[in-house]
Amino acid sequence: MRIIAGIKRGMKLFSPKTDVSRPITDRVKESLFSVLYKYGLPQGKIVADLFSGVGSLGLEALSRGAEFVIFVEKDPKIAAILEKNIAKADFAKESKIIKANAFKIGAPVDKMQYDLVFVDPPYADTKDVGKDSSLSRLVDVLSGQLARDGIVVVRTNNHTELLERYGQFIIMERRQWGTMAVTILKRKSNDKQAGGYKNN
């Protein structure tokens, strides 16, 4: 696992000896960030990496020019590896680690609102994505933490399809790569309708 683009391109990340963190492949990560560029992300933006694991997505965002990243990870052993990766990349001043369950706290606001939030929980925690699910409650929490035009990127198993709407948020697009899918949510506005599904 490595950072694939930006100022830290090619830097290898420390990772756990188990497969618990479900690392995202280089090809899929590159495809995901290509989609994010359409939204003007992540250059100069404030980002939150929830269920961050060892920080693959958040560190990629920093390497590609994000201004600041909050990492939320509840497993202390994984968080320790994340801290090593942040130090190795020399991003300590541009990041903060919060050791907590992201389902309960979302992306804690510290005089900032987020332009981009990655939501990447274990697949078992997204088997239920209905209106009373943990994911639905998390999106509700995030509604008060995102900037007006901020987006939420939810990674799930490819068999999981999110609801068309969660409170203020609607699906802008859905991409599928192999066994995983990414759904992009954004606040609904009067002149903007859901973008429908796009699958790769």
Task: Give an overview in words.
The protein is an alpha/beta fold. The protein has helices spanning 26-37, 56-63, 76-89, 102-105, 134-142; strands spanning 46-50, 68-72, 95-98, 114-119, 146-157, 165-166, 169-177, 180-187. A hairpin with a 2-residue loop joins strand 6 and strand 7 (169-177). It starts with 25 loop residues before the first helix and ends in a 13-residue tail after the last strand. Residues 191-198 have low confidence and may be disordered. The protein has an eight-stranded mixed beta sheet.
Q: Which features characterize this protein?
A:
single chain, 200 residues, Rossmann fold, eight-stranded mixed beta sheet, 5 helices, 8 strands, 26% strand, globular
Determine the number of helices (DSSP H or I, runs of at least 4 residues): 5
CATH architecture term:
3-Layer(aba) Sandwich
CATH class: Alpha Beta
Query: Segments where pLDDT lies below 50 for 5+ residues?
Result: 191-198
- Please indicate the percent range of residues in DSSP E strands (runs of 2 or more): 25-35%
Helix share bin: 10-25%
Taking the alpha carbons of the first and last residues, their distance comes to 22 Å
Structural category is: alpha/beta
Query: Rg, please?
Result: 15 Å
The major β-sheet equals: 8 strands, mixed
CATH topology: Rossmann fold
What is the ordering of alpha helices and beta strands? HEHEHEHEHEEEE
